[in-house]
């Protein structure tokens, strides 16, 4: 089984790397944003997509470019499962996985204990499993499971 681990940069990526023991159990690869933030994933194959902010004027064009880049990565790697900690740059890979009937797992951000993220509101509709890190978040995600902090 091949697993794609995907997250934007910064805190979302740090949360994703808390799953490194899981990464080591399966054939896996990482998809994250290319930024000035230095990622430490030398033991794992990594692919980079441009960073995107939904408030940018040209965000839709960047999103389409990320979708095409993700499409290339998807067909090179052929993942069976996609695990995402969000945000916007991870959606194309997750959409592709859903279209191709792959398992999608979304982990809501540790930083969100009172309201869901915009990405979470989208991902809950396409994910096979949703995990939250705070019990208080269960009221927003009916199908979610709270496993506590991944830290």
Rg over C-alpha atoms, rounded to the nearest angstrom: 14 Å
Helix content: 25-40%
CATH class division: Alpha Beta
Q: Please give the CATH architecture.
A: 3-Layer(aba) Sandwich
Identify the overall geometry: globular
In sequence order, what are the helices and strands, one letter per element?
Answer: EHHEEHEHEHEE
Structural class: alpha/beta
CATH superfamily label? Glycogen Phosphorylase B
Unreliable spans? none
CATH fold group: Rossmann fold
Number of helices: 5
Described by its quaternary structure, the protein is: single chain
The averaged pLDDT comes out at 92
Q: Please report the total strand number as a whole number.
A: 7
**What percent of residues are in strands?**
15-25%
Strand order of the largest sheet: 3-2-1-4-5-6-7
Count structural domains: 1
First-residue to last-residue Cα separation: 25 Å
Question: Could you give a short account of the major beta sheet?
Answer: 7 strands, parallel
Features:
151 residues; alpha/beta; Rossmann fold; seven-stranded parallel sheet; 33% helix; 25% strand
Written description of the protein model:
This protein is α/β, with parallel strands linked by helices and 151 residues long. The chain has a single domain, classed as Rossmann fold (3-Layer(aba) Sandwich), CATH 3.40.50. The chain is 33% helix and 25% strand. It is built from five helices and seven strands. The chain has helices at 11-17, 20-25, 59-77, 91-99, 118-126, and strands at 2-7, 27-34, 45-50, 81-86, 103-107, 129-132, 145-146. Helix 5 links the parallel strand 5 (103-107) and strand 6 (129-132). The two termini are 25 Å apart.
């Amino acid at each position: 089984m091949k697993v794609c681990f995907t997250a934007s940069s910064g805190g979302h990526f740090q949360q994703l790397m808390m799953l490194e023991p899981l990464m080591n159990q399966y054939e896996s690869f990482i998809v994250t944003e290319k930024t000035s933030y230095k990622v430490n994933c030398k033991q794992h194959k990594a692919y980079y997509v441009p960073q995107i902010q939904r408030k940018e004027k040209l965000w839709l064009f960047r999103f389409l470019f990320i979708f095409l880049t993700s499409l290339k990565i998807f067909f090179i790697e052929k993942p069976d499962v996609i695990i995402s900690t969000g945000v916007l740059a991870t959606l194309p890979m997750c959409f592709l996985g859903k279209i191709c009937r792959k398992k999608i797992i979304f982990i809501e951000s540790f930083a969100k204990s009172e309201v869901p993220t915009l990405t979470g509101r989208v991902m809950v509709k396409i994910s096979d499993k949703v995990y939250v890190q705070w019990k208080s978040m269960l009221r927003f995600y009916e199908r979610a499971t709270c496993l506590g902090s991944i830290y």
